[in-house]
Amino acid sequence: MSETQASTLQPGTVIYRLRGVRYRYHGRHLALDGIDLEISHGEQIALLGANGSGKSTLLKLLDGLLAPEEGSMRALGRDIKAVAAGQETFTFHRQVGLVFQDPDVQLFSATVFDDVAFGPLQLGLPREEVKRRCQEALELMEIGQLADRAPFELSGGEKKRAAIASVLSLQPEVILLDEPTASLDPRTKWVLVNLIRRLGEQGRTIVTATHELEIVPLIAQRVIVLGEERRILADGQPGEILRDRALLVRANLIHPQLHRSWSLTLEAEAEPQRPSDTAASSL
Amino acid sequence: MSLEAEADGGQVGGQVSRGQEVEPLTFSRRERRQLRRQLGWVEQTLAGVTEAIERAVFTEEHARRPGWLQGLDPRIKIGMFMVTVLAASLSHSLLVLLLLYGLLLLVARASLLPFDFFVRRVWLGIPFFAGVVILPSIFFTSGGPRLFELDLGPLHLGPTPASLLGAAVFVMRVGDAVSLAVLLILTTRWADLLKSLQILHVPQIFILLLSMTYRYIFLFLHTVNGFFEARKSRTVGFTSGGEQRAWIVTALVTLMNRSFQMSNEVYAAMCARGFTGTIRTYSDYRLRSGDVLALLGAALLAIGLFFLGRVLL
Predict the structure, then answer these.
(1) What is the phi-psi region of residue B291: left when phi exceeds 0, alpha when psi lies from -120 to 50, beta otherwise?
(2) Are residues B104 and B148 in the same domain?
(3) Which residue in A has a C-alpha nearest to residue B192's C-alpha?
(4) Does the beta-carbon distance from B269 to A105 stay under 8 Å?
């Protein structure tokens, strides 16, 4: 956006520190186990894992919506348990934005504009500033013409864009994206890949949960792989992770029969294309 | 009746091996009738769900047309609606009510609403509902000459000109009020209508809840649609009434579970964007001279109709 909020964090500063984090839903269903992780400001991370590996849960922990059952977790200088309990939640969510996997969850207002305005209004910003931020976020996602539409009138791709716009209007320093490109057509997918890259170039911290390997080299400099045991299987650079066929099979990210020649991602990594779309040009 | 049971009756082919031609299922006339009935309620439910969604989309489309009422501030429209409904409610003159209806048709025209749709939407239901209410007062009359008389044992019933006129006034008054409501709804987006309720001092939390209910009802309608389509696609034999009721209960429970999960997720999404319990909404309404003139015109019209009704009586 043209007037990007000045970052209060130095690049490279550790903003998340998780030690032995374990989380179970309703005290029974294990979602994450023994997670040790550090995330520095300005990193663009792809969180890879099969369905049910705990990606969404980890993102909710990073967003302070859930608190670990066991282990310790600090985020942006705060104890995440305090944030999840409602302390400092207001200031925390100024800095961290989460795009949910299901856009219907995120679009709860009567119109797209109202949804995009929801965050800035909660910040108590003046009306003109709210309007400006909303217009910028909508233009950025190329959905300015849908501002007055009701969410039920939108297609799947449009809903996804609107959901992302509703987080971008908060201008957070940390953006967490849960399967942003799932079930999207290639053009919309490309717009989002392009946007994630641009946001990353501005020095924002971006964590993208996905199991679409082909976009990983385009959006991330670091890859964390969650296994079906709900633990971190690997943490490294995209090239290193994506070449490790045995690891990808073990994490259920590729199948030996379905992905006999796994070269697409590596080609993309070797010659990363510069997204040429106009989206995100002003962010 | 299951397929196996049908097979016992010798109507259905047995196991099919490769290359063997599949024999068609054959049902008796009674069974075919049962199957049609069984599919009938699924079809009806599907049609009902689809119609509800289509109607909402249709309404939103009309509210976006560049008509006269669509261009007015929604808060002004609520004011215009209230004063005109008040005038119609206080009027006892059929002529005044007919005059008002004529004006409403002109306004509908100026607001680019399809004439037949506007008239049908109002008058298809009113004769039935208003008629049921007013019917006794037409026939149970005392005094005055009756147009004709019905002798039902000890009861002597018959309409008088006064009772017919009274019924006509009542039906017309309901027709005017419903026409006004339809005009307001068809020319105002639901979101604007809800926000405008603030001028009537409706609490913001109530408006937010209404707005979210309206937003998610369509999502759940789609889910229900999916349930019924899946059921229809798998209906290959007969099921008993008990089995059908059990299926409906299961579908209801599944829907309730989904709505509960969704409400938790939505709340989390609200918290993730800084929601702390205080409702803040954005409205960009600005009054223009045209809006003020329209409200003034509606108020003058209401006063004029009120006094005209008195003079004509």
Answers:
(1) alpha
(2) yes
(3) A110
(4) yes
Tell me whether 0.90 is exceeded by the ipTM. no
CA distance A244 to chain B (A): 35
CB contact under 8 A, B211 and A110: yes
Cβ separation of A108 and B269 shorter than 8 Å?
Answer: yes
Considering CB atoms only, which of B60, B268, B271 is closest to A150?
B60
Please check whether residues B181 and B237 belong to one and the same domain.
Answer: no
Q: Which residues of A touch B276 (CB under 8 A)?
A: 86, 89-90, 122
Q: Looking at CA atoms only, how far is residue A113 from chain B in angstroms? A: 9
B194 neighbourhood in chain A, CB within 8 Å: 110
Is residue A159 within a helix (H) or strand (E), and if so which, with residue range? Answer: helix A156-168
Cβ distance B56 to A152 less than 8 Å, yes or no, reads yes
Mutation target to probe the A interface, by most A beta carbons within 10 A, among B60, B216, B273 is B273
Distance from CA of A176 to the nearest CA of B (A): 11
B177 falls within a domain: yes
Domains held by chain B: number: 2
3-class secondary structure per residue, B32-79: HHHHHHHHHHHHHHHHHHHHHHHHHHHHHHHHCCCCCHHHCCHHHHHH
Taking each helix axis from N to C terminus, what angle separates A127-140 and A112-122, rounded to the nearest 10 degrees? 130
CB-nearest to A121 from B190, B262, B281 is B281
* Cβ–Cβ < 8 Å for B212, B266: yes
How does pLDDT run along chain B (313 residues), one tens digit per residue? 443 444 444 444 445 556 566 555 566 777 667 666 666 666 677 677 777 776 777 778 888 889 999 999 999 999 999 999 999 999 889 999 999 999 999 999 999 998 888 898 888 878 778 888 888 888 887 777 877 887 777 777 888 888 888 889 999 999 999 999 999 999 998 888 888 888 888 888 888 888 888 888 888 888 888 888 888 777 766 777 788 788 889 989 999 999 999 999 999 899 888 887 777 777 778 889 999 999 999 999 999 999 998 887 7
E-only strand ranges, chain A: 14-25, 29-40, 44-49, 70-75, 78-79, 96-99, 174-178, 205-210, 222-226, 232-236
Determine the length of chain B: 313
**Domain-located, residue B305:** no
User: If DSSP codes are grouped into helix, strand and coil, which group holds residue A32?
Assistant: strand
Query: In DSSP terms, which residues pair with A47 in a beta bridge?
Result: A209, A224
B171 inside domain: yes
pTM, rounded to two decimals? 0.74
* Range(s) of the domain holding residue B212: 38-64+202-274
Question: Is residue B228 within 8 Å of B49, Cβ to Cβ?
Answer: yes
Pick the last residue of a domain from B166, B188, B210: B188
The CATH number of A42-67+78-270 is: 3.40.50.300
Q: Could you tell me which of B48, B11, B58, B35 has the C-alpha nearest to residue B187?
A: B58
Does residue B76 share a domain with residue B59?
no
Closest chain B residue to the Cα of A129, Cα to Cα: B282
- Fill in the amino acid letter for A14: V
A43, A222 in Cβ contact below 8 A?
yes
Integer angstrom CA distances of residue A41 from A7, A26, A193, B172? 10, 32, 20, 69
Angle at A41 between CA A38 and CA A45, to 5 degrees: 65
Name residue B218's amino acid: F
